[in-house]
Design goal:
Blueprint: H1 2-8, H2 12-15, H3 31-58, H4 65-96, E1 102-109, E2 116-124, E3 127-133, H5 136-143, E4 148-154, E5 158-169, E6 175-186, E7 191-199, E8 206-212
Helix pairs in contact: 3-4
Length: 213
């Protein structure tokens, strides 16, 4: 792999420039070094992917062994790029939303819940945080036990009031609009809030429960 990169791009390392630039806060020790390393790998991989795609297209379906080998290497690089992208996203989240101020809100469905959620609204201390809709594919994932990260951001320590509103269609195609609110205290470390949507056992009426920890 190293020999292929050297033959194709002998001067890549001296001319490659970062494609993504993330601001470095004053207290982010070591971030610049790791960011540069990851972005260098990302840039190199993207250039190689572009070359290999063009080369494969020009081969017009031939069985050239060299292109077959490059294709395998390209697939490996794609997997590496996905890992690097996840690392960058995680690092960016740590910088933008430090744990001492972070608030994360999840949405989940109770077991055997058949409702369809059309829209979700979340307010914090009277200020809007989230206003979004859910697709059929997202509802399918929620019914299978998936959890949706509805919001992640930074808040100050102290008392807060979170208000959530859900609208949609329940059993027998009945429209619903439910609202609930909860008070919590933001202390040191990340604060998690779960919006649990379920149905009453007897009538199947939608319920919204807010839990925090």
């Amino acid at each position: 792999m190293a020999s292929v990169r050297h033959q194709l791009f002998p001067k890549m390392q001296t001319h490659a420039k970062p494609m993504i630039r993330i601001a470095q806060p004053p207290n982010a020790v070591g971030w610049g070094t790791r960011q540069g390393f990851l972005l260098g790998l990302l840039t190199c991989g993207l250039v190689l992917l572009g070359w290999a795609s063009a080369a494969s297209a020009s081969d017009e379906g031939g069985q050239n062994p060299s292109f077959t080998r490059i294709d395998r290497e390209v697939q490996a690089i794609k997997r590496e790029m996905l890992d690097i992208n996840r690392d960058l996203s995680a690092l960016e989240g740590e910088l933008l939303y430090p744990p001492e101020h972070r608030l994360t809100v999840f949405l989940s469905l109770g077991s055997d819940t058949l409702m369809d959620i059309d829209a979700l609204k979340i307010d914090l201390n009277g200020n809007p945080l989230v206003h979004r809709t859910y697709s059929d594919a997202e509802m399918k994932a929620l019914r299978k036990g998936g959890v949706h990260k509805a919001y992640i951001g930074s808040i100050e320590k102290g008392e807060h009031v979170l208000r959530a509103q859900l609208s949609g269609t329940g059993r027998r195609d009945q429209l619903f609009d439910i609202v609930n609110s909860a008070r919590f205290t933001k202390l040191q470390g990340t604060r998690y809030v779960e919006l649990l949507v379920s149905e009453s056992t007897l009538r199947g009426v939608p319920r919204l429960t807010i839990q925090s920890w």
